[in-house]
Amino acid sequence: MENLAGNFFLVGLMGAGKTTVGRALARRSGKTFYDSDHEIERRTGVKVATIFDIEGETRFRDRESAVIADLVRLNDIVLATGGGAVLRPQNREALRAHGTVIYLRANIEDLLARTQHDKNRPLLQTANPRAKLESLFAERDPLYREIADIVVDTTQQNVNLLVSRLEQQLQKRQRRTESLS
Ligand SMILES: Nc1ncnc2c1ncn2[C@@H]1O[C@H](COP(=O)(O)OP(=O)(O)O)[C@@H](O)[C@H]1O
Ligand SMILES: O=C(O)C1=C[C@@H](OP(=O)(O)O)[C@@H](O)[C@H](O)C1
Ligand SMILES: [Mg+2]
Question: Which residues take part in binding substrate (predicted)?
Answer without folding.
Answer: 37, 61, 83, 140
